[in-house]
Request: fold
Amino acid sequence: MNLTLSGRLLCMAKRRQTVTRPTKPLVKPPIRVGSLDAGAVVAELRQVHEAAGDPDVERMPSDEEIYGALLYTEKHASALRRCAAEVQQSAALKRVQLWEYLREQVDVHQLRALTDARGAGAPWVRLAPALAVAAPSAAYNKAKRLQAVTLVDGTAEARPVRRTPEAVLEAERRQALEAEAERRRQEAAERSHRLLLPVARRLVEQREALVLDEDAEYWLDEISAVLPDCVTPTQMLSLSRYLAAAVRSLRKQEQRTAVPVASTQEAHAAYLAAAALQAEPGASSGA
Reply:
């Protein structure tokens, strides 16, 4: 009796150990039909039925009406009985492929309809019967599972997330964090862009009060050349790179000689402003 109980407990422990976390990324992506010229496949089925002498083929829906065409070819499959086995197999396999293609499209389009319904103010209690579930909470969970088709996990392979509410919420949380980080980067870039012209102009104005080597002289010349007509994004990018190169040259000279490159407070402030601007997350540091 004790051995039996121990065995049951061991089996239960093993089962608990193998339970997959709802948010765990998929080990491998699902195999999907993916992109398919469904209309062309329907046209091929039409040609098969025409070649087989199907007397009702003119009643077959158009190539764009995939669902209707599938129902027709299913109902009139007997019209191909006199064809070779390979022809019958090929036609049936095309139907299988088209049904699988439709199955993959259903989640995407149902999710869009759900999004429109929620956007129009439809409560979950009204969506429950439309989703063939018994409760608003079940409708919410089903909607979350549908969202999985539009989301990917956080791995380098960007695999589809698991079809669980937990996995979808985790993916949405990650997307929100990424969107916020991108927003901050854009704000920093815009702030750097607004400051670029006055900071570069100020540094050039203090040129005589800066101790310049040949390298720093060259980059300040480049800045002076582009400043008067700096308007386009390409010109602004060039100016940012020239300013970054000038700051690097001044910094290297200061480190090499152990002597400040600025001989006045105004020049020192201009140099510090240029260095601070290059430290901005949105600043370009390429030479």
In short: The chain is about 65% helix and 0% strand. The longest helix spans residues 165-205.
